[in-house]
Design a protein that fits this description.
The complex is a heterodimer of chains A (324) and B (376).
Chain A lengths: L2 H32 L7 H19 L2 H25 L4 H24 L22 H4 L5 H9 L4 H19 L1 H11 L1 H6 L4 H27 L11 H11 L4 H21 L3 E2 L3 E2 L2 H5 L1 H10 L21
Antiparallel strand pairs in A: 1-2
Helix pairs in contact in A: 1-6, 1-7, 1-10, 1-11, 1-12, 2-3, 2-4, 2-10, 2-11, 3-4, 3-10, 7-8, 8-10, 11-12, 11-14
Chain B lengths: L9 H26 L4 H13 L2 H26 L7 H19 L5 H30 L3 H24 L21 H7 L12 H18 L1 H11 L1 H6 L4 H17 L1 H10 L10 H11 L4 H24 L6 H16 L5 H22 L1
Helix pairs in contact in B: 1-15, 2-3, 2-14, 3-8, 3-11, 3-13, 3-14, 4-5, 4-6, 4-11, 4-12, 4-13, 5-6, 5-11, 5-12, 8-9, 9-11, 13-14, 13-15
Classes of the chains: A mainly alpha (324), B mainly alpha (376).
């Protein structure tokens, strides 16, 4: 077997793995922001969910109860965000920042008090986690040249949640563009007064949107702590919530382009890990931190309007005030 | 609702309501402590003792407060222009880089009285430069400043890792840091400065940066409320359309406000790099940029309020360290949690308590008026 081919396969597999939490969070951001509510708090919700999943998995032994707990915790944070920005018309960015900071602090405070391991949760055994799934026939089909290894390494061997992430993109697209709920949700983000005139409650729509965002962030966090890793660690989201935000903007607030942006950013992450300490022929020592900065740089360049134009939903960031 | 002009007197609007908001944040923090089995009242006692109980405690409290004054002022200047600068963290990081680069380049050539002011200017200039790019993109390319400043925080972090690992790293060191500056590039400790006039205080990281921070407070006060540019900034923040009608150019205001904001945030580098570390290293900002958001919200974007809020956060950081030491179940991250709660209650939920306070006040006023009339 050709080494380069295997290396390419493992890099692509890592790309999909790295992209998984980004996909969930980017879709979460799309729901929230298309309804008109800025969601800077993806990072914090994902972090709190990762913590909840790791704690519940360790205590109950069931990864599925853990997933449920993570979703509940992230949705509760979404409700705090909604209560502040939808009900009380607080600043959406300030609220998101608050959620990120509270999550960063509280996960360590609780983790340390409960487990005394410097903020880490107990290590999980494989049966407490969502482990990679080997798809049927992967072992036999690997014998087939070219296609076999692709099936074995890239298609098979991911966590259940990775498959969910890929399935959720068409679902999000369908809900947003082919259902009445999706149409109303997008309208609430563009022209809330029109939605209101049609007799549809804008605030309720926005609450539903932020709760869906919470649910998706909950799955993202679960993936991080009980699937990709076997424990919760302090600050383990490591900026992924913001990369997902960048992917959402990069995809111009649309599900499919955002999905591809997630894959691109996941790929950058995967090669950055592989290039750590590697000297390439002709280029020499690779400045890995600069590769890791590329998603942010791409997003700034896109926002600056140099590669296409990212236009946010029109009513994004403005609380809706019902006229009397 | 909130669009209606307030019927509340000033002391409730700028005194009572903010205090109620902060108290709510502290009550939630107390509940968290109670949940993890710590006694909140005991915790407060240890915290206050740790922050203010000794000259040593005061020194650390004021040292932390110094950085928070810079970042709090930075956030507030941007707020006055109606901009939310989340990039204080990155601007502070790059400001430190500016101070460090100048120090490393000239510390064997220039004497301290020349080099230190130069390094202070460099910190401000680098911080401003890091803020001007997002400002330009907002003013002329229409990209949202909140998103770009967030991205610039990450870009700053990546750039610093690259520079420290590949460029500034001292070959003789295992850890990623530059060589230590010579005496010429260091800002004296406050203990040393007091020593010059014969007063002995405990040696702590507190340094002369505090004086610079307080001067900046006065300068910001004069600039925002007494200068023509400050007026333009406030007008743009309060009523952008009216400002345009009055002949104010919003693009120019955005750039100037962000440049000043970045320069103030960059001055964190003066405190940390010139005042304490005396070398370039990673992650010396340690969240001060984000604390600045809480400080500005709590201090209601006024320099005087910002000094008070910085003192409170300085005390939380210093007292929190003592607290983590005394009660092992509590970690220092409790302070981060409190910070987040204050941003939530004083910022995002700032209007939550207004309706019931207003109702209560109007009822009290009505009752008083009735009481007075029945007597008369």
């Amino acid at each position: 077997m050709d080494d380069t081919f295997l290396l390419a396969l493992s890099t692509l597999a890592a790309t999909i793995r790295m992209a998984t939490p980004l996909i969930f969070c980017a879709m979460a951001g799309i729901f929230s922001e298309r309804s008109g509510v800025i969601d800077i708090g993806l990072e914090g919700k994902m972090l709190a969910a990762a913590f909840a999943a790791a704690v519940v998995a360790a205590e109950t032994g069931s990864p599925f109860i853990a997933l449920g707990a993570a979703v509940v915790v992230a949705t509760l944070l979404s409700l705090v965000h909604g209560y502040a920005c939808i009900t009380h018309r607080g600043d959406q960015v300030v609220s998101g920042v608050a959620i990120n900071i509270v999550a960063a602090g509280l996960t360590v405070v609780l983790g340390h008090a409960w487990f005394g391991r410097g903020g880490n949760t107990p290590d999980l055994t494989p049966d407490q986690r969502l482990m990679p799934i080997k798809l049927p026939g992967a072992d036999t089909l690997i014998e087939i040249p070219f296609i076999g290894p692709i099936y074995y390494h890239i298609i098979s061997g991911h966590s259940l949640l990775t498959y969910v992430a890929i399935a959720i993109v068409p679902l999000v697209w369908f809900v947003l563009y082919r259902t009445r709920f999706g149409l109303r949700l997008r309208a609430a983000g563009e022209a809330p007064a029109v939605v209101d005139t049609a007799g549809i409650p804008v605030l309720r729509l926005r609450y539903m949107a932020v709760m869906i965002a919470g649910l998706l962030c909950g799955i993202a966090g679960t993936f991080l702590s009980i699937s990709m890793n076997a424990t919760f660690q302090k600050e383990m989201t490591a900026g992924r919530g913001f990369i997902a935000l960048a992917a959402m903007i990069f995809g111009k607030w649309r599900p499919w382009p955002a999905f591809f942006a997630c894959l691109l950013f996941g790929f950058l992450d995967a090669i950055a890990i592989r290039l750590q300490g590697v000297a390439l022929p002709g280029i020499g020592h690779v400045p890995v931190p600069l590769i890791q900065a590329l998603p942010y740089l791409f997003t700034v360049v896109l926002l600056a309007g140099f590669i296409g134009k990212a236009v946010a939903p029109k009513a994004l960031g403005y609380p809706y005030i019902k006229e009397r | 609702m909130s669009a209606r002009p307030s019927q509340l007197p000033r002391w409730i609007e700028i005194g009572l309501l903010p205090i109620i908001n902060v108290l709510m944040a502290l009550v939630v923090a107390g509940l968290i402590l109670w949940t993890i089995g710590a006694n909140p009242f005991e915790a407060i006692a240890i915290l206050v003792e740790g922050a203010f109980g000794s000259g040593y405690g005061w020194g650390y409290t004021l040292y932390y407060a110094t950085s928070f004054i810079f970042t709090g002022l930075a956030v507030s200047v941007a707020f006055h222009a109606g901009l939310f600068n989340i990039g204080g963290e990155g601007q502070a990081y790059i400001g430190g880089l500016g101070a460090g680069v100048v120090a490393l380049a000239f510390d064997n050539l220039l004497p301290a009285p020349v080099l230190v002011p130069l390094a202070i200017l460099a910190a401000a200039a680098f911080g401003a430069a890091w803020a001007i790019v997002p400002a330009y993109l907002q003013a002329y390319r229409g990209s949202h400043i909140v998103i770009t400043t967030i991205m610039f925080n990450f870009l700053a972090a990546a750039l610093m890792v690259y520079l420290l690992v590949d460029v500034f790293r001292d070959p003789g060191q295992m850890s990623t840091q530059s060589r230590t500056f010579t005496e010429n590039a260091t800002l004296p400790e406050m203990a040393t400065a007091f020593g010059w006039v014969g007063i002995k205080i405990s040696s702590t990281p507190l340094n002369l940066s505090l004086v610079w921070a307080l001067i900046c407070c006065v300068l910001v006060e004069i600039f925002i409320w007494r200068s023509r540019l400050g007026y333009e900034i406030r007008a743009t923040g309060l009523a952008p359309r009216a400002a345009i009608y009055a002949g104010i150019k919003p693009a120019r205001v955005v750039i100037i406000a962000m440049a000043i904001s970045g320069a103030l945030a960059g001055s964190v580098g003066v405190n940390e790099i010139l005042g304490v570390q005396h070398r370039l290293l990673l992650e010396f900002v340690a969240g001060a940029g984000f604390t600045g958001i809480a400080v500005a919200l709590m201090g209601r974007n006024h320099p005087f309020g910002i000094v008070l809020a910085s003192l409170l956060f300085g005390a939380l950081y210093q007292g929190g360290a003592e607290l983590a030491f005394e009660i092992p179940t509590i970690t220092r991250e409790m302070i981060i949690t409190i910070q987040g709660l204050i941003i939530l209650f004083s910022g995002a939920l700032a209007y939550m308590n207004r309706p019931w306070v207003e109702r209560l006040y109007l009822r009290l006023v009505a009752a008083k008026a009735q009481g007075a009339s029945s007597h008369g």
